[in-house]
């Protein structure tokens, strides 16, 4: 399982561990990923995602999963998140036409 946030696309970063004697050794900084179930109000379903804690706060700040997915760029989202986004747009068109 890759260490990538499904909503923001945040990946692990590579950097240096610097010792007291200033010797630099490669290390990785992993994102703080959590498995969460987020509910979609317009679709009436819940979806499981693996997201960072910062993305979870952003979802709450924007106003829920629906608003976050519709606002976010497509290149950052995973395939599963893009599928949910397409369903949301389809549902919005259906409700606007009715």
Tally of helical segments: 3
What does the average pLDDT come to? 95
Name the strands of the widest sheet in spatial order: 1-2
Number of strands: 4
The CA-CA distance between the termini, in Å, is: 42 Å
In this structure, how is the largest beta sheet organized? 2 strands, antiparallel
Structural class call reads: alpha+beta
Helix content: 25-40%
Write the H/E string, N to C: EEEEHHH
CATH fold-level topology:
Ribosomal Protein L24e, Chain: T
CATH superfamily: Ribosomal protein L28/L24
Task: Explain what you see.
- The chain is an alpha+beta fold and about 100 residues long.
- It has one domain: Ribosomal protein L28/L24 (Ribosomal Protein L24e, Chain: T, Roll).
- The protein has helices at about 55-60, 65-70, 80-95; strands at about 15-20, 25-30, 35-40, 45-50.
- The strands form two sheets. A two-stranded antiparallel sheet has the order 1-2.
- A hairpin with a 4-residue loop joins strand 3 (about 35-40) and strand 4.
- The longest helix is centred in the last third of the chain and has 19 residues, at about 80-95.
Descriptive terms for the model:
Ribosomal Protein L24e, Chain: T, 4 strands, elongated, two-stranded antiparallel sheet, 98 residues, alpha+beta
In a few lines, what is going on in this structure?
It is built from three helices and four strands.
